Amino acid sequence: MAHLFLDHVSVHYDGQAQPAVTQTSISVRSGDFVVLVGRSGCGKTTLLNAAAGLVPPTGGTVTVDGKTITAPGADRAVVFQNDALFPWLNVRDNVSFALTLRGVPLRERDAAAVRLLERVKLDGIGGKAIWELSGGMRQRIGLARALAAEPDFLLMDEPLGALDALTRERMQTLLLDIWAANAVGVLMVTHGIDEALLLATRIVVLAPGPGRVVREIEAGFGRRYAGGEPVRSIKADPAFNQARAELEDSILEGEAA
After folding, report:
1. Which of 19, 71, 90, 199 is most buried, taking the most CB atoms under 10 A from its CB?
2. What positions does the domain ABC transporter occupy (predicted)?
3. Which domains, ranges and CATH numbers included, belong to the chain?
4. Average pLDDT, stretch 224-231?
């Protein structure tokens, strides 16, 4: 079981009066779906970038299975809010790009792209140009590309933030389907309280000034979906509404602390 661990991580950007985050510890194991929530400026994206190896900590360590992270790696795939697809490549070649870098033969790359597109429910569009696609389709392609490297961890920075409400709900269930089927560890940033409750096995509440953890909340609504319960039924449960109120209170209390 793979283990991503941010151990008392601090990040202080040059020219800033105080750290972006300080003394923050977060653990993500295979099969975890950990979601970071909190107001803007609490360090959510900074922590995700540290986990990705994009931002070096100025204090503490980031490790995978005990080995210190110093750079991005194939064990950690990143999905951003802006899909970052290559407009000069078609869908199939975008999805298989990581395999191209590894020198995988063309026939194997194309077969892998077909499988991955099926996994994100975009069968038969491999030859299309990126500019022909909707925002939701582009995000699914970005997710398929991330999965191509068969990572141990998916790191996602507001991947659904730019989508309309209906597309966002469909993408939430797709993320749960992929998480349940692949047993990857997920670390995700969101501003959506309902989204955090639906997806997470554990929610980490952050507060600003500097960024720090103020509470961790165990959540199990996503596992109910994986067990066959419809999303609308889950969200209509009074327990979901109670959890939403508690999470909102935790965010507000963290700001006041």
Report:
1. 199
2. 6-233
3. 3-75+152-256 (3.40.50.300), 86-150 (no CATH)
4. 90
